């Protein structure tokens, strides 16, 4: 079962397609990392999913219902954290929490007490006077305590120091270890933090999905290949296979590239091309995979074009 399903979802802003015929499934119970460079369409996609923006065409389904028809009872099951949220931040923390507590039937007072102690937020100061890190803790506190089935986080770590990031991640993981299942979608530029949490990864480029799969599978099929041998540069196929990206031959005797479809037969295939040469393969970090996908298109990854 999927918590989110997008089918040919499109959003125009004038002549610009911020989201372009995007098809995507987010499995229930996953921590789904949504990655993309600035302007890739991440925030627009999240707002389309939550019906904060209307699609130009296509549709999204959230928790089994069309996102264009989300009702109050569905929003009771969805948590959303973003920098531009409008909040009653003139309140001090006790009143701030009391306000949000009144909105959600599923509010968990035990979890509230636990997270208040963990986050150590001041109680005699208006929330608007909090530091950015404290404000994000306060927002996340109001979001986690009603135990949403779907939690959507748009750049929650931006500009925060490492300790605050760790506190926020621990708070999110508290929800993931609860008895009730929760799906987390997190958009962030902080790829190292994402790699600690995510079990699924989606990569956006120009409003379209380039990659969407479990993190373990993604890291399994991307490999850095290094070939060393006399005049090995001359044996690079022309054209190079679609699965080879960032091919470099800095010297006649050294070839390096990233293989995006590494599998059981890949080494034998490479040895048939680079006969007698030394071939080494090594795994990539999620950051390196993200950078490599800038050379890819959806069709290379078996996704619809």
Write out key terms for the chains shown.
single chain; alpha/beta; six-stranded mixed sheet
* Distance between the ends: 24 Å
Strand order of the largest sheet: 6-7-8-3-9-10
Our count of helices gives: 10
Number of domains: 2
Q: What is the H-and-E element order?
A: EEEHEEHEHHHEHEHEEHEEEHEH
Helix fraction, binned, reads 25-40%
Notes on the protein architecture:
With 305 residues, this protein is an alpha/beta fold. Helices cover 29% and strands 30% of the residues. It has ten helices and 14 strands. Strands 6-7-8-3-9-10 form a six-stranded mixed beta sheet, sandwiched between helices. Strands 2-1-4-5 form a four-stranded antiparallel beta sheet, covered by helices on one side. The protein has a four-stranded antiparallel beta sheet with strand order 12-13-11-14. α4 packs antiparallel against α5 and α5 packs parallel to α6. The longest helix has 15 residues, at 162-176. The model is unreliable at 298-305 (pLDDT under 50).
Nutshell version of this structure?
29% of the residues lie in helices and 30% in strands. The protein is an alpha/beta fold.
Topology, pairings included?
Blueprint: E1 2-13, E2 16-27, E3 31-35, H1 42-49, E4 57-62, E5 65-66, H2 72-75, E6 78-81, H3 93-101, H4 109-119, H5 132-144, E7 150-154, H6 162-176, E8 183-187, H7 191-197, E9 200-205, E10 208-214, H8 215-221, E11 223-228, E12 244-251, E13 254-259, H9 266-273, E14 278-283, H10 286-292
Parallel strand pairs: 3-8, 3-9, 6-7, 7-8
Antiparallel strand pairs: 1-2, 1-4, 4-5, 9-10, 11-13, 11-14, 12-13
Helix pairs in contact: 4-5, 5-6
């Amino acid at each position: 079962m999927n918590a989110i399903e997008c089918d040919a979802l499109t959003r125009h802003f004038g002549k610009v397609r911020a989201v372009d015929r995007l098809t995507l499934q987010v499995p229930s119970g996953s921590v789904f990392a949504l990655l993309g460079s600035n302007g890739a369409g991440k925030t627009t996609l999240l707002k389309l999913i939550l019906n904060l923006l209307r699609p130009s065409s296509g549709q999204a389904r959230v928790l089994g219902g069309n996102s264009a028809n989300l009702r109050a009872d569905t929003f009771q099951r969805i948590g959303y954290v973003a920098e531009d949220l409008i909040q009653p931040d003139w309140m001090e923390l006790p009143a701030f929490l009391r306000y949000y507590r009144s909105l959600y039937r599923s509010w968990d007072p035990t979890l509230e007490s636990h997270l208040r102690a963990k986050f150590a937020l001041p109680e005699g100061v208006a929330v608007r006077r909090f530091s950015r890190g404290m404000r994000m803790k306060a927002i996340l506190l109001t979001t986690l305590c009603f135990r949403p089935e779907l939690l959507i986080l748009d750049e929650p770590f931006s500009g925060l120091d490492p300790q605050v990031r760790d506190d926020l991640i621990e708070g999110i993981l508290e929800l993931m270890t609860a008895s009730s299942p929760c799906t987390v979608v997190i958009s962030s530029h902080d790829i190292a933090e994402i790699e600690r949490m995510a079990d699924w990864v989606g990569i956006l480029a120009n409003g379209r999905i380039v990659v969407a799969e479990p993190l373990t599978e993604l890291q399994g099929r991307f490999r850095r290949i290094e070939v060393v041998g006399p005049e090995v540069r001359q044996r690079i196929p022309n054209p190079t296979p679609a699965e080879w990206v960032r091919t470099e031959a800095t010297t006649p005797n050294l070839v390096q590239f990233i293989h995006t479809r590494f599998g059981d037969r890949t080494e034998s295939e490479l040895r048939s091309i680079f006969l007698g040469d030394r071939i080494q393969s090594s795994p990539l970090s999620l950051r390196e995979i993200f950078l490599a996908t800038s050379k890819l298109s959806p069709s290379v990854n078996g996704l619809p074009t």
